[in-house]
Amino acid sequence: MRIPTAIIAAVSALALTAPARAKTIQVAAGEGAQGRLQEALIVAQPGDVVELAAGRFALTDGLSLDVNGVTVRGAGMEGTVLDFSGQQGAGEGLLVTSDDVTLRDFAVENTKGDGIKSKGADNVVYYRIRVTWTGGPKETNGAYGIYPVASTGVLVDGCKVSGASDAGIYVGQSKAITVRYNMVENSVAGIEIENSRDALVTGNLVTRNTGGILIFDLPNLPVMGGGNTVISDNLVVANDTPNFAPKGNIVAGVRRGTGVMVMANDGVRISGNQIHGNPTAAIMVVSYPNKFDDPRYQPSPRNIVIMVNSLDRNGTDPQVPGGAQLVAAFGGALPPVLWDGVGTAPRAVGGADTTAWSLNLPAQGTGFETAKPTPLVLLRPLGPTHGMPSDALRRAPVGAPAALDARAQP
To answer: Which of 233, 149, 135 is nearest to 186 (CA)?
Structure first.
């Protein structure tokens, strides 16, 4: 049968305009791994997979990826290790600046700077990634383990981080965020959500950090107005590591033994968590402590709702002036919720474990020496009938786009 000339022409035109078929670029460990891996990240096209073989990749410089739609996949977080112990520069191990990227199933060790940073990378997935500084907690370790910033659509799932001198998992100036099923230990902050909105932090284990989960809003950043965050069903246990952040860092002021800390945020719900064995406080709700000159900034917390959580063995050794005397005055342990007394007090919904105390600071930016600690009765949100949520509980959806879930599969 003779094919009409018009059909042949149409098929030929389609072939010329269709994208090339996605391919897998395999990279093995061994001699020359630095150049071969960076070359693979440069030549990859949208839809390609850069497949890292099992083994230890000895790297001397940071890596970068700026192609959309690429997957970087290893043979497991214990099987494929990007070892930056010999890194000569001070930057991150891997920098991603493109959209729709999936990073999965490999480890990053001993970077001079951050472990993996993605900047302006929308719809980014970190899945089963391990970032570690093998020498334990040190001020000279990199600041952040997993570090997405300035993104819309972030999923951090099933990862493991230890040793970060700022935050193990940090998401900043972003929106539509899910951080779930991760383990973070031996870092200053376990998980930090900063100047971001619509975040879901759920199902994580944070332990042996200085502070477990931090929700911050800071001045003088390009994106302001953090809030609408849900912290649910996490294990926040025994965060008792001394603070080893470099001096001048905002998290250098986090007290050893902080479970969950909300600072200057709007609309945070804390529910269903097990918060146990944190020596200073289970939950802290505080204002920004420093002077600032940003007219856009609201330094006090608003609309913080504490629902039913399991709170046990917290506040037994608070790292605050006069801590021992306070513990004695409160009968052996401080109440689980601490409010600094500035802004709007957190509200409680249900449960018997929502007793609190207040520092009664007279104004934002005043020091602990002005504190007048007293017990505090948390108010319940007002509603049309008993048990109905108030406006503080009505919020926009939180979490990463559902489409990212398909990229976080075994």
So the answer is: 135
